[in-house]
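quick one, 121 residues, struct below
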Amino acid sequence: MGMFLDGLKNHNARLFMSAGVVIVYRRGDINLSITSVVGATDWQDQNVSDAYQQLKSVDFIVDPAELNIAGALVEPSRGDRIIYDGYSYDLLQTGNGAFWAWSDGFKTFYRLHTSRSDVAS
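---
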């Protein structure tokens, strides 16, 4: 798998160079300016009345090494926000209870599912 993983790393580096945008990752009063690739996810969710609803999230793919607060790497969690393009995005909790998922089978990047909440302040 070495050659495949090397190819994936090369692809990811080019993706971040060509499609990467700067976002602000906010936890409380701490703001981190980091590079992200913006995407989206569509899925169905079953609500309380057993009806299915179509949902769509704005996804931010980030390098876990960029989430360094005061010298410690942190995982995305409840209350964290992303500021991008003049809007604020709240992290959504995934089906397993986490606020992030791995972007691929090699666990190289976080995929943060979010919902736009308001104009960034």
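The first helix runs from residue 2 to 19.
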